[in-house]
Write a structure and sequence with these properties.
This protein has six helices and 14 strands. The protein has a single domain, classed as HIT family, subunit A. The radius of gyration is 20 Å and the shape is globular. By secondary structure, the chain is α+β, with helices and mostly antiparallel strands. It starts with 6 loop residues before the first strand and ends with a helix. The strands form three sheets. Strands 3-6-8-7-12-13-11-10-9 form a nine-stranded antiparallel β-sheet, with helices on both faces. It has a three-stranded mixed β-sheet with strand order 1-2-14, with no helix packed on it. A two-stranded antiparallel sheet has the order 4-5. The relative contact order is 0.17. Helix 1 packs across helix 4.
Length: 337
Amino acid sequence: MNFEHPHRRFNPLTGEWLVVSPHRTQRPWQGQVEKVAGDFLNQYDPNCYLCPGNTRSGGVINPNYSDVFVFDNDFAALYPNLDKSESNENDLLISQSERGICRVICFSPNHSLTLGKMQTVDIAKVVETWKAQAENLSQNDFIKSVQIFENRGEMMGSSNPHPHGQIWASESVPNELSKELKSFADYKQKHNSCLLCDYLKLELSKAERVVYENENFAVLVPFWAIYPFETMIISKRHFGDFTEINEQERFDLADILREITSRYDKVFDVSFPYSMGFHQNAFNTEQKHDFHFHAHFYPPLLRSATVRKFLVGFELLGSPQRDITPEYAAKRLQELG
């Protein structure tokens, strides 16, 4: 079919559709592109609550850490110790208690860095910490999901530019992971194979949406991407979660994280905002899940460093929609290597 005409694309991970309308913007990058001032941050900020030796907003003093630093979130969204409770009024007003553990990971003591500016060997230490945290948190028998993520930039609600991410380990499986677990199971039942193994093989054979690959991972703009420069990182080997990643894969994941984030920063010559997170298998469940480890990047910028995409109107009430095609976005990111 002609992808330059209006069409729908199906997301097999969530079972949802989006509308693509490339005719709305025939020459999407020919207009004015605003630039914003660059990020000039010092390596140490005495007012930053994440820098070494500083006092956090909760009153705790950080150690003078020189590497990756992990601590329990001072304002955690979930608590590990709660009495189990639930309520149900006429199957309409339904609620239940939710336990969990929330942690913060400082990627580096250097306040001025981002993943795109860090060395691969240093990002590999972050990946090693993610693995250790997944192993540690999943040992709690009530934890079903370990969601590792990073919100980068004020546009994505990040309260501090210091390079850091979060982990929310929860008693229940979150909505998006639940959708994917079901999609993997349905695909396996129908095709007797893995959804992302088959998808990655198809994308690598076509190459048009693949941004970068190394021995163990590939980063691509998904065929069903909603955000203009949305990408996915997919492992080439089939495994389910961080606890299964090997030493070479840890380094290659660090390499591909540095590659995509540094390319993002070149799109509009600005430190690119995004929400990024890893989807991994559910833990401590009786049901067997055959999941494929991957990560999602959702960057909001649309036409410049100051113009972002909003999900409004039809997208909130009907289906998500995009103008530039995933193929065009992939070509842009490929050229910035």
